[in-house]
Design brief:
Length: 305
Amino acid sequence: MTAQTIDGKARAARIIDAVKRAAEALRHETGTEPGLAVVIVGEDPASQVYVGSKARTAKECGFKSVKHVLGADTTEAALLGKIRELNADPTIHGLLVQLPLPGQIDEAKVIEAIAPDKDVDGFGLTNVGRLSTGAIDEAFVPCTPAGAMILIRDVVGDDLSGKTAVVVGRSNIVGKPMAQLLLAANATVTIAHSRTKDLPAVCRGADILVAAVGRPEMITGDYVKDGAVVIDVGINRIAAPEKGLSDDGKPKTRLVGDVAFASAAEKAAAVTPVPGGVGPMTIAMLMANTLTAAYRAAGKTPPGF
Ligand SMILES: NC(=O)C1=CN([C@@H]2O[C@H](COP(=O)(O)OP(=O)(O)OC[C@H]3O[C@@H](n4cnc5c(N)ncnc54)[C@H](OP(=O)(O)O)[C@@H]3O)[C@@H](O)[C@H]2O)C=CC1
Ligand SMILES: Nc1nc(=O)c2c([nH]1)NC[C@@H]1CN(c3ccc(C(=O)N[C@@H](CCC(=O)O)C(=O)O)cc3)C=[N+]21
């Protein structure tokens, strides 16, 4: 079977377009302009790229967009102070702190400091609890799994009754919420991780296979059931000597996922590419969550996506 390539970039563009129109409507009706604040600690180049892309897309949606860059040696107390300030700012509806954080800062404490109604990453206990108890409509769902779920629904349908899903990875930001969403859609869900025995065999049982491992091209065709839908969450930058050297004398790099695309595509019915798959959907869902936060703050019912 030669797989369909799922175009996350085009799907994300449609969501961003709908967010933009809904933001215009909200401004017209209530005068509220959605506001997104992104806080980044340190100068990690990959994080800078994502944060830049979030800020750019927020502007494209007609949002107020602010970026706070704090030094790598920022104390936990200083970061918590910044969060309190943004929690109290009525022009900010969505607030996120880019992860990972430097070692001197307790991530859990920082996530808990964000007001639940501004927690557009959906990482705080209130939103995690809503998602896992079935109150999904009230939850901010983490953007990456929310985006992946839209791609799955587009291909498989809204009801996954009778389907088996395997999520490889059990992080709080991707694997666990992804599993909750699949479960809520009635799939029979397995969460696999580094201690799983015979991972290829477990994965071959999946009608829907989600890879969120952080290991470049680990999931080959040998892990894929014939006709499966494969969602590649991984974002790995690897050396690409074939592209030559960059200005700093080091080999150029390229982006690959956790899935070996060509080999998986020989078995799968549909696969997401990297780049152009789940990554752009993550940014689009952040915009959707921020719009939702602004609608709620204005006392209006948000549109669904
Ligand atoms: N597209 C997007 O928007 C986003 C992409 N990402 C990408 O997704 C990937 C996963 O991210 P994240 O969840 O934060 O990563 P983490 O490192 O937090 O989690 C990785 C998970 O994979 C498991 N794992 C690691 N090695 C193996 C292995 N050999 N076999 C089976 N399981 C393994 C780990 O198991 P254990 O728990 O046992 O250690 C862990 O649960 C990364 O490539 C990241 O860059 C992340 C966020 C957003
Ligand atoms: N608090 C917090 N929230 C996050 O959502 C969060 C985070 N921290 N830390 C880092 C990860 C990673 N992440 C990505 C977002 C978009 C792309 C994306 O747009 N990728 C493009 C390519 C981008 C490129 O070329 O580098 C694509 O896949 O097509 C990737 C990764 C969000 N994260």
